[in-house]
Amino acid sequence: MIRRIKGTYDILPEEAEKWQKIEDVMRKVARIFNFKEIRTPIFEASELFHRSVGESSDIVKKETYDFEDRGKRSNTLRPEGTAPIARAVIENKLYADPAQPQKLYYFGPMFRYERPQKGRQRQFHQFGAEIIGSASPLVDVEIINFALTYLKALGIDDVIVKVNSLGDKASKENYIKVLREYLEPNINELCQDCQRRHEENPLRVLDCKVDQKNPILLNAPKPVDYLTDEARYHFDHVVQGLESLQLDFEIDGNLVRGLDYYTHTVFEIQSQSDSLGSQSTLVGGGRYNHLIEELDGPDTPAVGFAFGAERLLLALENSPVLESKSEIHAYFISLDNIFTNEGLKIINDLRMGGILIDYDFLNRSLKAQFKQADRLNAKFYLIYGEKEAKEGIINVKDSETGEQVPVKIDDLYDYLLKQLKGGSCSNGCSGC
Ligand code: HAM
């Protein structure tokens, strides 16, 4: 038997309904905040990620899925969505659109060769948003507020919001120098990876997953203490904005994030739910003012975030938000030959009017057809055979009350519509 690849999984129909729910909420909140959807390819030139996410990042160092195509070009399955969007903004000249800033969101699969565990897959899905074309601290506040509003709309409120600032280019460069000097005498006490990171990019050391509780890292100098006046002004205004929205957050001086492109604000939102285990970060994001320029576009400041959809679903485990019984309006119970008695036409006409209806494809007995209708949670059984065809009627039986009435075929649609309007249905369809 051919099995799915390690770190990937199938989303079966029952699970897919939960995905649809979190996607629906995502699109609704995006609309309220006036974000527009963007869809980019799932693979890109490898160089894009090397130049953006960073050569020293774990993602580029050991997690990308790279392959050479038949034209001998190196391609990479996207490990994240920000760099492809920056590329798309440059290539499609979205930076020149008069409607600035561009407020974009995306949803789709990402690929990282990580060690799979709960909340960490090799193919996973991100819901992300980017605001491109404004350096104002207001958009940092807007993006964090968007992320929190989405969580609230899903009913997830047991979260911790961590915010930090890496400052502008000058602050970041100065801080990296200070950090390298601080780590130098303690280098042998750090993990193997960090000894290498210290050379390549000491910021990565603070992001170490192994040494998180090491006092050397906990006591390390903090980027916020090395901000230029301009960077301090920006961060103070982000903090002020979050406070004026009365959002709960804490400043975490050690938060640096694992991708190279960040400057100024970085943030993460962690779930406190037990169901996530060690992978508790639901969303990560921050400002990346130089990425677009570094990818040969014009100087364009930007800020964004990305949620891990699988982690959202874990945080929502057992939540009533995702509980739903899928229902259909009616199940057509065929007593005779459906090919000759116009039954197919009746079913199709109802569907054209928006009625959710299904019928038997397995030549089931009468009893088995009723059973199947119950499995699908049909509200009505539509019982029909040669006799009904001759009389121009159909028997409509309410599955809950057992009440059965003959209805003229010509009146069937209006009758069902009226009955359904009186009841409630979880399908959110216009017929109910
Ligand atoms: P990131 O922190 O690498 O940031 O990923 C964002 C989120 O994606 C994580 O917080 C997590 O929920 C989810 N995630 C990451 N890797 C995995 C995995 N292997 N399995 C399951 N979920 C995962 C970024 O990707 C940036 N592009 C975010 C951003 C947007 N910054 C600015 N704009």
Description:
The protein is α+β, with helices and mostly antiparallel strands. It contains 16 helices and 16 strands. It has an 8-stranded mixed beta sheet. It is elongated, with a radius of gyration of 28 Å. The chain starts with 12 loop residues before the first helix and ends in a 10-residue tail after the last helix. Histidyl-adenosine monophosphate binds next to strand 6, strand 10, strand 11 and helix 12.
Write the layout of secondary structure elements.
Blueprint: H1 13-32, E1 36-37, E2 43-45, H2 46-52, H3 58-63, E3 65-68, E4 74-77, H4 82-91, E5 102-111, E6 123-132, H5 137-154, E7 159-165, H6 169-183, H7 192-200, H8 203-206, H9 215-218, H10 229-244, E8 250-251, E9 263-271, E10 281-287, H11 291-294, E11 302-308, H12 309-315, E12 328-334, H13 343-352, E13 357-359, H14 366-375, E14 378-384, H15 386-391, E15 393-398, E16 404-408, H16 412-422
Parallel strand pairs: 1-5, 7-8, 12-13, 12-14
Antiparallel strand pairs: 2-4, 3-4, 5-6, 6-11, 7-9, 9-10, 10-11, 14-15, 15-16
